[in-house]
UniProtKB/TrEMBL annotation:
Name the UniProt record assigns to this protein: Four-helix bundle copper-binding protein
Pfam family membership, one: Csp
Taxonomic source organism: Microvirga alba
Superkingdom of source: Bacteria
């Protein structure tokens, strides 16, 4: 991805970037795409009614991850409180979606892939939160 390259060219960044936040942005966008795809795959399954919660959590997680990626990408001005709250929401959405997808992972490979993406994104958001000093 070109996230670091782009953000480092921002006039206010002067070539500096927060590696944890860059990784978080990339994982958020990746997770958003995978969750959207998993929801669509769930809709194609014969037992779609049994996957209703999974679909709902996939779509919620996808929206939250995409929004997190967008908010974290903006470098003009400062909105640390919103970024922290978005990170908290993203961590929760990824945890819940990952837990639900894990319940279906043995029957549906798309849920296995999605659960793994959610775990990576959750961890990247936690690392970004830590790098912001939110745990201190």
């Amino acid at each position: 991805m070109h996230t670091q390259e782009m953000i480092s060219t921002h006039p206010l960044m002067k070539g500096k970037t927060d590696e944890a936040l860059i990784h978080c942005i990339e994982e958020c966008y990746d997770c958003a795409q995978i969750c959207t795809s998993c929801a669509d795959a769930c809709l194609g399954e014969p037992m779609v009614q049994q996957l209703t919660l999974c679909i709902r959590l996939n779509l919620d997680c996808a929206d939250i991850c995409a929004a997190m990626g967008s908010v974290a990408t903006r470098r003009t001005g400062s909105n640390d409180e919103v970024v922290r709250r978005m990170l908290e929401a993203c961590i929760a959405a990824c945890r819940l979606c990952g837990d639900e997808c894990e319940r279906h992972a043995a029957q549906h490979e798309h849920c296995n892939v999605c659960a793994e993406a959610c775990r990576r994104c959750e961890q990247a958001c936690q690392q970004a939160m830590h790098s912001m000093g939110a745990w201190h």
